[in-house]
Amino acid sequence: MDEFKVVYTLSDSKSLILQTVNSVKSLIIFVDKTNIVFIINPYSKKLEKILGRFGEIYRGNDYYTRLNLPIYKYKIEMCDINAKNLIFLDCDTIVYKDITELLDGDFQFFGREEPCRSINGNFKNTWNEEIWKNNLRKFKKNENAIPYNDGFIIFKDEIHKKIKDEFILFYKMYNKGILKSPNTVDNMHHNEFALSMAVANYKCKSMDENHHWYGWRNEMFKEKPYVLHLGTNKNGMFGYLNNLRKFI
Q1: Which residue from 53, 54, 57, 210 lies 20 to 30 Å from 17 (Cα-Cα)?
Q2: Under DSSP, is residue 29 helix (H, G, I), strand (E, B) or coil?
Q3: d(Cα 111, Cα 116) in Å, to the nearest integer?
Q4: What is the DSSP letter of 60?
Q5: Distances from the Cα of 173 to the Cαs of 80, 81, 178, 180, 193, in angstroms?
């Protein structure tokens, strides 16, 4: 079993390919290619040719394709990677520091709070904390758990494998409306709520903007964080390119 892997999941979307190549080019400054994995679903020979020079190609499992869930279901495939520790990166990220340094510390899961919940510690008016806590209580989860953004997350002690069944279960329940969304403005973030509930009873540690910076929120920073998460905002790919020009 490998000590750690850095994992991306993607399809053959042109925008995702561009974003992933930009991200992994920044990553290989710090991480050897033997520790990088690209999960491709659906599989594409073209994509394997493009990304194979940067790391290992993992062909997506048809099981996930058959799941009646939105496209973010493919992130669940990181749970199948055979490594002691796992670092997951969204395609629209840029790595500025050695993220393997963040494997040190007493935790099993490391992530940053999903901004749909709060800004600077203040709940947004589109967030219902009681719904979130009720969902946690139903499954005897830590009521102090928070929802995490899954654009840059770290698992230790093979926790990514142990949460798989609950990750899928909770995602299905949010998607079907069995679990109410605490984000009252839309039905986004179900994958992140499911992941966050699955890790809630493990030893979790919270990142801040010095670890995981949210580009679409135009956060300020004095020195470059470990990971810049550019995002796409309402303008889609144009938003990503605009942030890329602005901050890189």
Answers
A1: 210
A2: coil
A3: 15
A4: P
A5: 21, 24, 5, 9, 11
Bridge partners of 155, per DSSP, are 86, 109
Domain 2-208 class, CATH top level: alpha beta
pTM above 0.90, yes or no: yes
Which of helix, strand or coil describes residue 214?
A: strand
pLDDT in tens, 188-240: 899 999 999 999 999 999 999 999 999 888 777 778 899 999 886 555 555 56
**Angstrom distance (rounded) from CA 215 to CA 77:** 26
The secondary structure of 70-134 as a DSSP string is -GGGGGGGGGG--EEEEEEE-TTEEE-S-GGGGG-SS-SEEEEE-TTTEETTEE-TTB-HHHHHH
Residue 7 or residue 13, greater confidence: 7
Contact 117, 127 (CB under 8 A): yes
